[in-house]
Design brief:
The structure is a homodimer.
Chain A (H helix, E strand, L loop, with lengths): L1 H11 L5 H12 L6 H8 L3 H14 L2 E3 L8 E3 L4 H35 L8 H23 L6 H19 L3
Antiparallel strand pairs in A: 1-2
Chain A binds a DNA duplex through helix 4.
Chain lengths: 174, 174
DNA sequence: TTTGTAGTTCACACCGACGTAAACTTATGA
DNA sequence: TCATAAGTTTACGTCGGTGTGAACTACAAA
């Protein structure tokens, strides 16, 4: 399963472990649901790893069992965008927000010092530039997680064309 | 230096180590260049770490010595976007490209099998969807790395407004 | 030349992420 | 009921990333 390896690694970038990506890809590309044993076998990893990883994927809603029995085979949920958006929101937003808040506090402090005539060891203008950048990143992230990528294969091609067109105009910005 | 920690962690996300982000941020916010000893002291890390990290930053062009002497103090290069774009290109492009090529090969193989009447264990349509997604990701990445973020503080605010406007129309896409 | 200080290099320690083996639990079916 | 197979849990090994200590080098000033 070279495909699962390659796509899996790609997916791993978006806040998942590589094994998650590999399992999801294998299930996504399979015509029929597969048992954990099959998955472990095809990917060449232990059943223990498949068991835990599958449950983590299930918690995120990226994979679901077909049937109710304990050893029901698994299939991939194809509509992954909402989950990715969630991960981005949880993980990145917190990080950016912390940087932004810290910067704001530091700027405020520096402004007070400056207004009382103290010569600063730090550069206020540059602090403001960084603050603008974090705000920009937040806006960007907000738009990203609000995006609705079409779930149907039929409309996906169409959507891709329009989205690409819009993105191109970003490049022409002066 | 809480600011350096917070911003540094944020930067670390873009393919750098956290210490790189912290050092760069400290230098970027300082009114005057700083020696490695000062940096190590302010950040509370060993001079050994600052030495190697500073050189790595220098190789990437994110930081430069002021003066020619061996112990010249360092200052941050503020125009970071080209460097980030480089990292994205090098690191992400390779990953996506590998996924894309592997997928294409797998699809081709599957098509041959199917046309010769063999019933497939894998789902050809889903493979094609994944392929579209990698292509979309490539287009997106290409636009991203070609972006020119203004270097001057004066035009940055203006640019941010326009860019945000464009991004918003992405959200409204159907 | 000597002495002190900044910077460099390298061997090692620590830690978390990832994966395995093996024992254990639960279901299926002869 | 017992045997077998699937799935789960836990304790452990390995590895890479990150950082330190200490020895070493290069330079500046006395």
């Amino acid at each position: 399963m070279h495909v699962a390896d390659a796509v899996g690694e790609f997916i791993a970038w978006w806040g998942f472990k590589a094994i998650h990506g590999r399992i999801w890809t294998l299930l996504a590309l399979s015509s029929n649901p597969r048992s954990q044993a099959e998955v472990a076998d095809l990917l060449g990893v232990s059943r223990a790893l498949v068991s835990t990883a599958t449950h983590e994927l299930h918690e995120r809603g990226l994979v679901r069992p077909v049937g109710a029995s304990r050893q029901a085979p698994w299939t991939a949920v194809m509509d992954v965008w909402p989950v990715i958006a969630d991960v981005l929101r949880d993980r990145e937003w917190i990080m950016i927000e912390r940087a932004r808040v810290t910067l704001e506090a530091a700027i405020e402090e520096a402004e007070i010092l400056e207004s009382s005539g103290v010569s600063l060891e730090f550069d206020l203008d540059r602090m403001r530039v960084l603050l603008s950048l974090t705000e920009m990143a937040q806006r960007f992230l907000r738009i990203l997680v609000a995006l609705r990528v079409p779930r149907s294969i039929a409309s996906l091609g169409d959507w891709l064309v329009k989205a690409t067109g819009l993105l191109s105009s970003l490049r022409r910005l002066r």
